[in-house]
Amino acid sequence: MTDDIQNGKIYRIVNWKSKTAIDLGEDGKSVTGSEVNGTSNQQWLAEERDSSGMWTLKNVHSGGYLGFKGHAAGLRDGLAVTLVKHAFEWQIVVDDNNESVNRLYVPYTWYNLELYTDDGVFPSGLLVTLGKITRPGEEQTWSFELVG
């Protein structure tokens, strides 16, 4: 639950459906869902920006932030999530259907982080993207596992 995420702690963020972790790609920019491997590429420092549920997620390995390129006006299903230099804020909320997981929204939008595939197969290395909550499902929900 969001209440369980602690400011200044490091987490592995795992997709509820695929059981893969958000992973910084070898190119240092792409963000994928990959098998849990314990490396710092899969470790994210959670920093609460204010009491309204806004958080930044900083990659331990690179120091970059989980975000996307472009502006909110250009949001669309399938937009790739990438590593960015500036601190991007995510609105993290408990999922309505499963209180043990969270959704990570672009603030004040219906777009949230997802691992989406048409065929239901989630290969390691699948790109993490943004998707509208019009497809409410487990591929859009995430657990935060405290590291260390």
Structural notes for this entry:
A hairpin with a 6-residue loop joins strand 2 (21-24) and strand 3. This protein has strands at residues 9-15, 21-24, 31-34, 44-48, 54-59, 65-67, 82-84, 90-94, 102-105, 111-114, 126-127, 129-132, 142-146. The chain is an all-beta fold. The relative contact order is 0.25.
> Helicity, in percent?
under 10%
What are the segments in which pLDDT stays under 50 over at least 5 consecutive residues?
Answer: none
Structural class: mainly beta
Query: How many whole angstroms does the radius of gyration measure?
Result: 14 Å
Order of helices and strands: EEEEEEEEEEEEE
Q: Note the overall shape.
A: globular
How is the main sheet built?
Answer: 6 strands, antiparallel
Determine the mean pLDDT: 92
Order of adjacent strands in the largest pleated sheet: 9-8-5-4-1-13
The strand count comes to 13
Q: What is the beta-strand fraction?
A: 35-45%
Count of separate DSSP helical elements? 0
| N- and C-termini, Cα separation | 19 Å
Assembly context of the chains: single chain
Which descriptors would you attach to this protein?
mainly beta; six-stranded antiparallel β-sheet; three-stranded antiparallel β-sheet; 13 strands; 0% helix
